[in-house]
User: What shape does this take?
Amino acid sequence: MVLAVLGTLAGALWWVSGPAVEVAVPDGDPLPAVATPLLSARRVPEWTVAATGARTLRAELAPLVDSLPDRSCVLLRTDGTELVSVRADLDVIPASNLKPLTASGAVALLGAGTRLATVVVAPPGPGGAPVGSTGTIDGDLVLVGGGDPVLTTSGYEPYEGLPRNLLTPLELLADRVAATGVDRVTGSVVGDESRYDDVRDAPGWKPGYVSDGQVSRLSALVVDDGRPVSGGAEPALQAAETFTALLEARGVTVDGTPRVGVAPPGDVEVARVESPTVAELAEELVRFSDNTTAELLVKEIGVQRRGVGTTAAGTEELLAWAREVGVPVEGAVLADGSGLSRDDRLSCDAMVAVLETAGPDAPLASWLATPGAPGTLEDRMVGTGLVERLRAKTGSLDGVRSLAGWLRTEPGRDVAFAVAANADSVDESVLEGLEERLLLSSLTYPVVPAPEQLRPLPARPA
Assistant: This one.
């Protein structure tokens, strides 16, 4: 019996201390055998690390979360584990944190490589071509809008730091028209915006959004975001006026006065210019929070998916896509695509799900703003530990603040997060401070070593 007990104890000791384990070095030569006990802290399983870290993080963040207004939601999640979740399913006004959903849906529904074309057409001449040997276009030159939201002239800069390759130069189209040999148009330059409806705004918008320069008047043909507004000109008319001036600067005489109309069915193409890809437009829309790009992509979704260029058709398709890919949008309301509308509703759960559906290494994550770089976080959180660890989308309206994105913690975990606060009155500086403190407090998750850091290490020879 004594021998049996001693044998059992010896076996148990061997099991706890573990057998000798050979650890390979980079050149393939094994190190001397080492021992890693089975019950060593170095064998802490993933679920233990996650649970301990989550409990610690929740306790640390509780005072910050409790100080948010009642109409707020918070969610931090990594690899399916909810670290912090407070009213995550509450549908709140998301402000511009609707844009990641719009951008992702646009890429999925329109195609990442799709480009939006602005085309110039004219009546065919005797030989079928619009420009004859005389260099004259007999009739109107029609500028047909294709919904390009970044159609600009060289003197216009929508956002500081926005690369010019994410814009469409209208001068290039004028160059191409002049290159055909045309030197005179007997009619007018006509702006055609018929691809979309003529509704200039969306439900829930403040009247001052356009005059304040937050968004252009919505149109399938808009140049320089419709600014500067001259005498209240409609977008298509302003585009026709601008294009007339560009042609005349290139030696093309236009007899008629710029006006708005629809291209006749028999007109033939003279020249065209294409926008950046939809993926590039989505990047511009997210990083620089471009409201006009969001809204025109929504109308383009309506055209391509339902045959009608309306905001309602586009947002309905976006919601259908979100449901299809598993984003929880049961109570969501999309009155527009930019988040300017106070009628919009989206939960923190949905905001995080949009990010997770793409993943931390997907294009959507790379489009998010980062502290100190051109974009909506250029002057925020600079000089903190969040630089190079945070990618996020901001959102702001009167009484609304939101922030959602990805946080790479110091132990190397990717945490998808969303925090949104709705209140009758919001001290923006206080809420910005809360967002920053919440993220800084999350940087050390998990507070116990990650399993990959607990792998067996070389030890003394056995």
The chain is about 30% helix and 20% strand. The first strand starts at residue 20 and ends at 21.
